[in-house]
């Protein structure tokens, strides 16, 4: 039987003991024992940090939490507390987290604090993944409601405003563009028709 297979520097042919350290994941004089979960060190005599992600242990040699931290902690050994504004979790490498928008439906607690994406959509009047874009004030409807994902105004635009999000004004952008000319002609025809009816 070869007892030297897990030695990093070979072994003594007479004793069968390793000359140096063991390969990663092994310990003991013959390097034939493996570290139990949640222990590290040359002889697996030290406990992994208590804030390593539960059940995943740590690096056998360094004690670093290689599989992440429990919620609320960050650092190589998960020795630091996340900032209070991160709510529950933060990036292991630098402790940062995304500040959630107050426009998330349910408030800033209702978003993924690592990406900033709102989990339940936006409060009325806002749209987009992070709910930071405001619906156009020229949407037709109560409280300038728009689609919370796309910003599209479902009931159309006020007069002299166009595009699906009602963010372009005919008089402000290009008053002679085909879109505005068509819109104005249609609008004027309606006005003329209404005027004619009042004389009958």
Secondary structure layout:
Elements: E1 26-27, E2 33-34, E3 39-40, E4 46-47, E5 73-74, E6 80-81, E7 126-127, E8 133-134, E9 161-162, E10 168-169, H1 178-198
Antiparallel strand pairs: 1-2, 3-4, 5-6, 7-8, 9-10
The total of beta strands comes to 10
Strand line-up across the major sheet: 1-2
Number of helices: 1
Distance between the termini: 112 Å
What would you call the structural class?
A: little secondary structure
Portion in helices: 10-25%
- Major sheet characteristics: 2 strands, antiparallel
Shape category:
rod-shaped
- CA-based gyration radius: 33 Å
Question: pLDDT below 50 for ≥5 consecutive residues: which ranges?
Answer: 182-200
State the main characteristics:
little secondary structure, two-stranded antiparallel ribbon, disordered C terminus
Structure description:
The chain is rod-shaped. Residues 182-200 have low confidence and may be disordered. It has one helix at residues 178-198, and strands at 26-27, 33-34, 39-40, 46-47, 73-74, 80-81, 126-127, 133-134, 161-162, 168-169. β9 (161-162) and β10 (168-169) form a beta hairpin. The strands form 5 sheets. The protein has a two-stranded antiparallel sheet. 10% of the residues lie in helices and 10% in strands. It is low in regular secondary structure.
Structure summary:
With 200 residues, this protein is largely without helices or strands.
């Amino acid at each position: 039987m070869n007892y030297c297979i897990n030695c990093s520097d070979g072994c003594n042919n007479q004793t069968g003991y390793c000359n140096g350290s063991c390969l990663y994941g092994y310990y003991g004089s013959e390097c034939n024992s493996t570290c139990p979960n949640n222990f590290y060190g040359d002889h697996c005599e030290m406990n992994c940090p208590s804030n390593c992600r539960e059940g995943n242990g740590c690096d056998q040699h360094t004690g670093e939490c290689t599989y992440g931290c429990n919620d609320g902690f960050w650092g190589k050994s998960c020795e630091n507390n996340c900032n209070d504004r991160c709510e529950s979790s933060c990036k292991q490498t630098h402790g940062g987290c995304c500040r959630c928008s107050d426009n998330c439906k349910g408030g800033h607690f209702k978003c993924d604090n690592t990406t900033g994406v709102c989990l339940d959509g936006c409060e009325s009047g806002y749209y987009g993944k992070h709910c930071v874009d405001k619906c156009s004030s020229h949407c037709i409807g109560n409280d300038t409601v728009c689609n919370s994902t796309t910003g599209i105004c479902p009931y159309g635009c006020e007069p002299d405003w166009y595009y699906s999000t009602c963010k372009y004004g005919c008089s402000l952008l290009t008053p002679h563009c085909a879109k505005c000319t068509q819109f104005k002609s249609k609008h004027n025809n309606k006005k003329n028709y209404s005027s004619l009816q009042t004389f009958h």
